[in-house]
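User: I'm curious whether this sequence folds into something compact or stays loose and floppy. Could you predict its structure so I can see for myself?
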Amino acid sequence: MDRRTFLAAGAAAGLLGAAPRKRHVVTYRDRGCGCCEGWVAAARTAGYSVEMHDLERTERTRRFGLTDATAGCHTSLAGGYVVEGHVPLDVVARLLRERPRIRGIAAPGMPMGVPGMEGPRIGPLDIITLEPHSRLYARV
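Assistant: Here's the prediction. I'll summarize afterward.
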C-alpha cells in the first residue's frame, strides 16, 4: 500500500469512527397511554431508534423497581440505564454521554412542557436518580 492509499484509508476510518451511532431505546408504556407516543416521536426525531411495547402499570413498576414517587407513564431502557417518564432528550443524551454509576433517572409523574406533555411548563423540572436514596440529577 502506498502512502496516499494509506492516508486515504486512515482518513476514511477516522470519519467512520466519528459518525454518530444511532442509539436503540426500548420503551414500555402503560397500556393505552397516548402521551408516551409523543415522547417516542421526539426520541426518534433526536436520532434514537425506538421499540415500544404496552405493559400494565403494576407489572412495569414491579419489573423496573419503581415506586409511586418515581414512576411516570412509561419506562425506557437506553444504553443500560432505566429512563423513567418524560425525561427531556437532552438529559437522556447527557446520561448516555457521562455514564454515571447509577441505575437510571426519572421525571416522575406527568410533567408539563416536555415531549409528549406539551403545554406550558410551570417552574423547573427535577430529574432524579433511580437509586436507594434518590438525588437530583438535573434541573431543567
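Summary: The CA atoms of residues 42 and 115 lie 6 Å apart. The two ends are 53 Å apart (CA to CA).
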